[in-house]
Amino acid sequence: xxxxxxxxxxxxxxxxxxxxxxxxxxxxxxxxxxxxxxxxxxxxxxxxxxxxxxxxxxxxxxxxxxxxxxxxxxxxxxxxxxxxxxxxxxxxxxxxxxxxxxxxxxxxxxxxxxxxxxxxxxxxxxxxxxxxxxxxxxxxxxxxxxxxxxxxxxxxxxxxxxxxxxxxxxxxxxxxxxxxxxxxxxxxxxxxxxxxxxxxxxxxxxxxxxxxxxxxxxxxxxxxxxxxxxxxxxxxxxxxxxxxxxxxxxxxxxxxxxxxxxxxxxxxxxxxxxxxxxxxxxxxxxxxxxxxxxxxxxxxxxxxxxxxxxxxxxxxxxxxxxxxxxxxxxxxxxxxxxxxxxxxxxxxxxxxxxxxxxxxxxxxxxxxxxxxxxxxxxxxxxxxxxxxxxxxxxxxxxxxxxxxxxxxxxxxxxxxxxxxxxxxxxxxxxxxxxxxxxxxxxxxxxxxxxxxxxxx
Length: 456
Fold this sequence. Notes:
By secondary structure, this protein is α+β, with helices and mostly antiparallel strands. The chain is built from 17 helices and 18 strands. A hairpin with a 5-residue loop joins strand 8 and strand 9 (about 170-175). It is globular.
């Protein structure tokens, strides 16, 4: 480690850090309180520097853990075995924007809000919105999606190509700018969602969208969860092209009303909706949605067409993490997600709500329910082993319930270190093939070891 530190300092100079404060900042992400200090933190700014760091670590058999905005929720950035945390926030350049082809290329440290500010003047936007101002590299590594996924897809559909540094320090380009290709194995899709276990993503070629001509939002409240979820299912079955459809249960609404000062709303299950298109198309979609809500007992149907009103609503939705912490000051938060076929959504959420109530824990439900994805924010005292145990067990049951209903243990958070058992339950013998891929791409197991899959 001493020799590696000397080599890294020779390579990067003051962009090599070993101070306690910097190491603590890189010891964990959000969502889980568990932390492990890296031995060294480096701040490369070019592909070549990342490749040089990888070569040094590979030769020394020292773990490498990529780090972006630190907003991941399943322990992805925790350096379980120490080693080197590779902070990519200095790689924050937008390399090219191609308005005519609706694509761009960015470095991994560019954040989604930064990108959207830059491309707005060209009439474009990048639709993937996981809530946090995450880095594009981190969103790629975790196969993020978010509130707009029901219409615009996930990172899987919006990444056209990548630049990746392999564990032994090679710089690879996958994919390209073409919207489709039948050439060879799809390495781009393999790296998207690999959680830093196969290589370090340093550049991303992204698909962009034109800004919609008209945008409107609506809010509707319901007497119970079943009515709200049945409304979602009906809207999806009628193929209404919703841009966003978010569910907040009564406990989550209580938290948001307090934290975000959402005056005029009751503490009941609520849908936040957004519509994109021409003015006529948006009006038609809103009318159709209003009729479905009415049919399922919806009330307090409120429109928000002014940008400032929409911003206030979606800011409240994006602040649910902090709103939940306000429900039990001093407690930690464990966030988990699951995704099921839309036909199973009502049953899965209903069973999950009953499960939460039996545990005695505070765990609001919020979800991108248009694609069957929902989240729990489980609050617990990390100093109380019994409470931590109940929280872990609840998260595990949510995963297994979703798998039993034909879904997945995670729609967008990823596996990290918290869902290793659930991945094996979901994929069974296929996990052995994943192990083979991991060993082939990273024979010395230096890339984010201990995440995604167990090697033994």
